[in-house]
Structure formats: structure tokens, C-alpha cells
Amino acid sequence: METRLIPVIDASGLRSYKEVPGGTFFEAAQFVNGLLNNGERLDIELLDLTAREIDVLEKQTECNLIRQQIGEISIKKCAAIAANRSPRLYLKQLNGLSVKLWRLEREIKQACP
Hints:
By secondary structure, the chain is an alpha+beta fold.
């Protein structure tokens, strides 16, 4: 399987390269984008990508942030239940984030046949 070097910028601004599998730079960037931690981001300027591919990667990054928010709110919801408080507020937030995540993932699937 082919591998590609994908430029990544960490939280301190230092650039590094990750070697990941992928037939194209877009496939490799999409793979590595799903693995990045907080503060790390792709250095898109060094990749030769189309506007559609960049849009997909930005949506993928937004999906990752929403998943993190869902995790944080789920922890708060569990703490509320443990403290005998109503989790209604957290459930409403989780539903809103879930719908937003679902829509973004659907847009990504439509953009990548």
C-alpha cells in the first residue's frame, strides 16, 4: 500500500510530517485528519488539494470538534444524574449536536462518492 507524508502543525506552531496510507494526498490527509489531537491541524497550504477536498477536510475537522463536545456534555449529564439533578438541559444540547454532526457527515458522504 502506498504511503504519503502529510504536513501537520502542532499547538506550538511546529510543522512535522506524518506518514500515513493513502493512494492520493487527499485520502491520506483525510485519514490523518481523523487522528489529530487538540491543537494539531493539517497544514493545508502545503497540500495540492481542490476547493472541494479542502471543504471536506474542514467539515471533518468540525465533526471531530462536535464529537469532543458530545463527550464533554455526556460526562456532565452523567454527573447531573449522579447528583439527582435533571439532565434535561444536557439532553437538549446532545440532541442539537447530534443533529449537526449527522448533517455534516451526510454532506461529507455526498461530496465524496
